[in-house]
Amino acid sequence: MSPSSRLSIALAAGILAAFVTIALVETAGHTVFPAPPGLDYSNPDALRHYVTALPLGAKLFVLAAWLFGTIDGVFVACLINKGRYGLCAGVVGGLVLAATIANLMFIPHPVWLAGAGIIGIPLAAFLVTRLMPHLLRPA
Predict the structure, then answer these.
(1) CA 87/CA 11 separation, integer angstroms
(2) N or C: which end of the chain has fewer CB within 10 A?
C-alpha cells in the first residue's frame, strides 16, 4: 500500500474513531443526566438556561467526550500510520478542536469547560504522539 493511501486510511479511521467515541460518551452522559422533557434545542435562551443549570457531572461528561475522543482518534490514526504521529495528531486533534470550538460558539458553556477543552484537546493529541513509540515497542 502506498504511503499516501495508508495516511488517508489512517486519518479517516482516526477521525471516525474520534467522533464515534465523542458520540458514545456524550450519549452516556445524556443517559445519566437526561434533558428535561420538551426542551427546545432550537431556542437559544432555553438552551442557555438548560446548560447553565446542568450539574457538574454532566459538564464533566462533555469534557471527557472531547478528551477521550481525541485520544482514541489520534491513537487509531497513529496505529494505522506508524511513524507519522505528528501529522496524525495534528489532523485528528485539529478537527476535534475545530468541532469543539464550533460547539462552543453555538451552545453556551461555562468558561472553565471551554478553556479545558481548548487546552486539553491539543494536549491530549500531543501526549498520544509521545506515548505511541512506547506503546508500539515489541515486548
Answers:
(1) 9
(2) C
Residue 126 to residues 47, 62, 130, 135: CA-CA distances in angstroms?
33, 20, 6, 14
Q: What is the mean pLDDT of residues 21-41?
A: 93
State how far the Cα of 10 lies from the Cα of 52, in Å rounded to an integer.
38
Rounded to the nearest angstrom, the gap between the alpha carbon of residue 123 and the centroid of all alpha carbons in its chain is 12
Q: What is the mean pLDDT of residues 120-132?
A: 96
This prediction's pTM: 0.91
81-86: long-range pairs with CB below 8 Å, 24+? 81/6, 81/7, 81/9, 81/10, 81/11, 82/132, 82/136, 84/7, 84/10, 85/128, 85/129, 85/132, 85/133, 86/129
CB proximity list for 48: less than 8 A, separation 6 or greater: 108
Residue 3 has pLDDT above 90, yes or no: no
In one-letter notation, the amino acid at residue 49 is H
Neighbours of 103 (CB within 10 A): 15
- State pLDDT tens for residues 97-124: 999 999 999 888 999 999 999 999 999 9
